[in-house]
């Protein structure tokens, strides 16, 4: 799994962008946006009409469960 976590000015990143989700999952950014728009499996915060952030901990937990299911 790719680690795209970053440290911004001494603060740990607590959210992912759709671009980061796409890189982690190995899918297009459009597919990442579609997943974020339709999922209830992890927390997605909408910050305006075209901006969203994914709660890092809930996404990571979901991804770990998906890996355990296979």
Please describe what this structure looks like:
The protein is of the alpha+beta class and 70 residues long. It has one domain (13-69). The protein is built from 3 helices and 5 strands. The strands form 2 sheets. Strands 3-5-4 form a 3-stranded antiparallel sheet. It has a two-stranded antiparallel sheet with strand order 1-2. A hairpin with a 2-residue loop joins β1 (7-8) and β2. The radius of gyration is 12 Å and the shape is globular.
Question: Tell me, what's the shape?
Answer: globular
What's the total number of strands? 5
Please state roughly what percent of the residues sit in beta strands, choosing from under 5%, 5-15%, 15-25%, 25-35%, 35-45% or over 45%: 15-25%
Average pLDDT level: 88
Share of helix among residues?
A: 40-55%
Main β sheet profile: 3 strands, antiparallel
| Number of separate domains | 1
The low-pLDDT segments are none
The helix-and-strand class reads alpha+beta
Helix-strand pattern = EEEHHEEH
Which value, in Å, is the CA radius of gyration? 12 Å
Number of helices: 3
Distance between the termini: 15 Å
Give the SSE map.
Layout: E1 7-8, E2 11-12, E3 15-16, H1 18-25, H2 29-38, E4 44-46, E5 52-55, H3 56-69
Antiparallel strand pairs: 1-2, 3-5, 4-5
Helix pairs in contact: 1-2
Quick structural gist:
The chain has 70 residues and is of the alpha+beta class. It has one domain. α1 crosses α2.
Key terms:
46% helix; 5 strands; 70 residues; two-stranded antiparallel sheet; 19% strand; alpha+beta
């Amino acid at each position: 799994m790719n680690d795209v976590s970053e440290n911004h000015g001494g603060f740990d990143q607590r959210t992912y962008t759709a671009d980061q989700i796409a890189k982690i999952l190995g899918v297009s950014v459009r597919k990442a946006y579609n997943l974020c728009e339709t999922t209830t499996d992890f927390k997605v915060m909408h910050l305006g009409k075209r901006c969203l952030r994914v709660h890092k901990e809930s996404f990571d937990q979901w991804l770990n469960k998906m890996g355990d299911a296979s």
